[in-house]
Amino acid sequence: MLDNAIKQQLQSHFSQLSQSITLVIALDDSKKAQEIKTLAMDIAELSPQISVHIDDNPQGRVPQLSVVSDVRDTKIHFAAVPMGHEFTSFVLAILHSGGHDTKISADELQQVQSLEGEFVFETYVSLSCQTCPGVVQALNTLAAVNPNVTHTMIDGALFQDEVKARNILSVPAVYLNGKPFSQGAISLAKILTKIDSNASAKYAEALNQKDPFDVLVVGAGPAGSSAAIYAARKGLRVGLVADRFGGQVADTVGIENFISVKATEGPTLVAQLEEHVREYDVDIMPEQRASKLVADNGLQLSLDNGAVLKSKTMILATGARWREMNVPGEQEYKGHGVAYCPHCDGPLFKGKKVAVIGGGNSGIEAALDLANIVSHVTVLEFAPECRADAILMQKARNANNIDIITHAQTTEVLGDGERVTGLNYIDRESNTEQHIDLAGIFVQIGLVPNTEWLGDTVTTTTRGEIEVNPDGSTSLAGVYAAGDATNTPYKQIIIAMGSGATASLGAFDYLLRHAD
User: Fold this and answer.
1) Which of 344, 369, 386, 484 is catalytic?
2) What is the pLDDT of residues 494-512, one digit of tens each?
């Protein structure tokens, strides 16, 4: 299954193994089982520390491939052929189980090692999901460090009976000890907060003890990362507080307009952003949400966990999130047929009828992507015509399983109490109510800035975008803003990065002119 170039790279990585591991494989007569066997055998040839054992009496899912530490008795399971986006998860599971150091902090390592009790995690994924590998790798790290934790990654397309029984219509879906634990992106820090009741209070106390920053960046997408790097290069004391690295970019698949890089993917770019920020002396405070900004003897930022951070200047780069339809049934069936990421959740609707709400570029791209998986796609556009590029519209019209309806105002999401069964919309030309039977609804109607928490502390537009001056400054002295949370007319990665640099240079100039 692996070509020679990949084998050579892996052989170099596996030379770092200091402890032996066993790849335990549970097989049936399926094609996927044979692929798992071939993959395990190929991997075992690359290091004397790796052996393969065929489980002749499997008690769990079949087919399955397990990475077992012969020294620490840790177990990481893959109920899948861990290729595609999850191949890196598989390779890291081998390295970490074989004694190679994880990249988690010393404090996190101690916290993981001290966890008591039994933690059985299961994560349902699709192999095309961009968000899933981050969750899988975080849980695999727990399982590689603490034998009380086990984790199984499950390919939802391979175990459809389980997906149906658990009513899973959005990935990644994580279960702990048989009960729902989380849905969507979640980091190691947030996982630890959820399973260690004392973690959040301890961290809040530690944050409260921090000295004031010169520059505090709120948000770690392209704008926030750029701002932090530029500030750190000026020799300033820089803090970076964010819910997650990358923001919306983490959910983006193909990126082909990032100048000097012909093509990349969102998660790849996010990893590079984080790696670049960590090259500098930036105090990174992950998994934190801002709740209030106050100008009182400097600037004070309150967080959801109760901590308060102080800074001389601040850069707001909180980005934006998917815009919702705000119709009855949307919240009830979110994650149960209502979705916002076609690349993540599309494979769960294989062979079914779905709708895409929105006829812009993202909507038509979603429809074209889904058309290769589902039986039929209906695009609903509110306006008289779709706004997508002509080339995308031509491809959509040429597809034999995509219908486009304009003048359509979605009014209600319908379901049976467990999952979506259809939607109602008004034909704005005839003013008549229409109905469509379907299994999934993918909402692609733009973005909303993450600025509600600011209240009236800075001036915003009627759409909630922070109004900024050419230097990135806002209406509040010492506070700057950048990226998709601002009133910049174009929401693009490269523009966000540039505005982050601008805001950082603006904050530096402010500090020069307002020195203590």
Assistant:
1) 344
2) 999 999 999 999 999 999 9
